[in-house]
Amino acid sequence: MLHPPPAAATLPTLRPPLIEQLELQVARVPVTQVLIAANLLVFVVMLGFGAGIWHTSNSIQLDWGANFGPATKDGEWWRLGSALFLHFGLFHLAMNMLSLWDGGRLVERMYGPARFSLIYLVSGLGGNLLSLVTQGDGAVSGGASGAIFGVYGALMVYLWRERGDLNPAEFKWLFWGAAGFSVVTIVLGLQITGIDNAAHIGGLLAGILSGIALARTHAPRERQRWLAAGVLISSLVWLITNIPAPRYRWSEELLARGEISEFLGADARISARWGSILSRAGEHRSFDELAGRIENEVSGPYASSFEQLTRIRLDAAAPSAAALESLRKYAELRRDASRALVEGLRAKDRQRIRAALELATQAPRLSLPSPHNENPPAEQNRP
After folding, report:
1. Which CATH number goes with the domain that contains 209?
2. How far apart are CA 318 and CA 70, in angstroms?
3. How many domains does the chain have?
4. What pTM does this model have?
5. Which one of 131, 141, 145, 338 is the catalytic residue?
6. What is the pLDDT of residues 10-27, one digit of tens each?
């Protein structure tokens, strides 16, 4: 936590600590308070919709706007912003909010509410863009720490530029505390899986450049501000233009999951109907009547289901691709078996009837993975 050093003989002047000077100039930090309140509110609301207090599944995070390559790059660009307000659990949220309060109450006073808001937003978006470029399509990410790293980057810029007017001991305490926090967190991110270090690094760099560009400075340093602004804008443009194409589209994956779920429900009904027809086969007046019922109530629905599954276009990299292919084979086999049974009944050929029934019993032996609970392979939070 970034607090002034203990009052001791280390401070050779009577000048009050920096935080006290800033509080005298700007009494309140409304943007920091609103950001913390918004993050807390989102977390509480998500708890009411199935999120866990200690851990939240990928599916819920995705529903609420986590950053995920196949979804974000499929036109849902708003996820770059919404992901800044999502957290994977109470510990994740608490660490981020403590860090935001610790740095935000200083930086908002240093730069003013409007510039602080811009630093926070640009850093968060810059971090998420870098994550989108480097992480590929294998991670679901969320958290405010990309933006928070930007806040600490801007803090270090301010402290460095104003170091001549600060007490040396206080400068060392605040500047190296912020630098140490940033470095240690990034190093930990390299050692611990599940941390989106790209968002940390991208946010930090964006915050440093934003801090230089938005600093309240005099004319001699105007060139530095324009240079930093140019580098920042160029970097963001480069990231945007170099976002790789998704390995699959999330909208197509969701459509496939819906179709698969619908087919599995229909298959349960058709199979029950088929079994009922066969169990009461003796009640039919003729083989042709029995064949007609199977054709109308079993063969036709399976043929329609197979055609519907065949029309679905899904990249092989999509999570549901394997399940979809298995179900296509399953529907095709059940269709062919029921058609063969109809033909055998109409031909009154007992051997063909037995072969068709044997073929029908083979279909359920296929492995039918359920995609409904599948999520993208990994989650990335930013503690």
Report:
1. 1.20.1540.10
2. 9
3. 2
4. 0.81
5. 145
6. 544 456 777 777 777 877
- Which residues, in sequence order, are CB contacts of 163 under 8 Å at separation 6+? 171, 175
Catalytic residue among 92, 200, 305, 320: 200
Please confirm, yes or no, whether 145 is among the known catalytic residues: yes
Integer Cα distance of 186 and 197 in angstroms = 6
Structural domain span for residue 335: 251-365
Q: Residue 220 is encoded by which pair of tokens? A: 């001699």
Answer yes or no: are the C-beta atoms of 232 and 206 closer than 8 Å: yes
Measure the CA–CA gap between 270 and 299, rounded to whole angstroms. Answer: 9
- pLDDT tens digits for 20-71? 777 778 778 999 999 999 999 999 999 999 989 998 888 899 999 999 999 9
200 is catalytic: yes
3-state secondary structure 320-365: CHHHHHHHHHHHHHHHHHHHHHHHHHHHCCHHHHHHHHHHHHHHHH
Single-letter amino acid code for the residue at 29: V
Tokens representing residue 97 in the block: 């909010």
- Separation CA 316–CA 319 (nearest Å): 8
Q: Which value, in Å, is the radius of gyration of the alpha carbons in the chain?
A: 31
